[in-house]
Amino acid sequence: MTLPVPHQPQPSSPALTVLALGGYGAAGSYAVEHLRSRGHTVTTAGRDATRADLVLDLGDLAAVARAAASADVVLNTSGREDPRVVTAATGAGAAFVDITATATYIAGIEALDLAAPVALSVGIAPGLTNLLAHAAARQSALPLDVAIVLGAGEQHGAAGAAWVYGMLGQSFVDPATGSPVRSYTRPAAFDLPTGRRRLYRTDFSDQTTLTTELDRPVRSYFGLDSRFATTSLAALTWVPGARHLPTSIPMPGGERWYLQVRDAERVHGSATGVGQSRATGLMAALAVERVRAAGAGVHHLPSLMSIEDVDLTVFG
């Protein structure tokens, strides 16, 4: 199998017109701030008239298409996962970038007949994890494990909290074996900067994408920086109805996140930072600047850049 060759660093992007759906939220606000600092024109859009530059109901697909028609790129950080929104935006001629980590939503987008480029896997997980895994695959032919530890103490938005709780009790299909796996089960131990951690299988989309791209088993393991919070998720996954817990329930922890990619022999790559929402926003902004150079269709982050193109020190 021939693996993709790392992309060469690209020059600064020409000024773009960007429509940022939910661009005032946890991750979106960081992406918008960074893009504006780079000289791009960004219009935030959403239903909150007090925070959005443009009031826009994403359920009104005609309105989405009209708004997208005046943009070079549409960035979706709203948490709304509707392939029809992608079709409306790309049908109007705009490229599309989405920070989703939901495998079923990504599969839905991949099934579309797209008229413009769409960038997926553009945050930290998926996103940075994909870049780290591709780098590891150029050094090793073995199956890969991806460790994802997020800060439990960060206020990373209702959509992010709902996503973590929403996996409780839910099963997904292991992309390597085809067997069902309940989220927050089948633990594995990882040696991280904070010590040895017990992390759990969860339905991160990077494992599905990477298993196909790299032609080998890739498995994602997740935990929060708080051992107590992580153990609580592993217990709650067996409690009926736990996925409907209020997302406002606080969990102990900080704001630092960790990523690691390893095989059975050694660790191949890692990254860390403070604030996953900020890191997700910065990574999404990088994708916004690169996506228009790609052809129509879906492009995961490793087809737009390599890990060498990312300054990992900016994450803190």
Automatic annotation (TrEMBL):
InterPro entries: NAD(P)-bd_dom_sf. This is Saccharopine dehydrogenase. It comes from the Bacteria. It comes from Sanguibacter biliveldensis. SUPFAM superfamilies: NAD(P)-binding Rossmann-fold domains. Gene3D superfamilies: NAD(P)-binding Rossmann-like Domain.
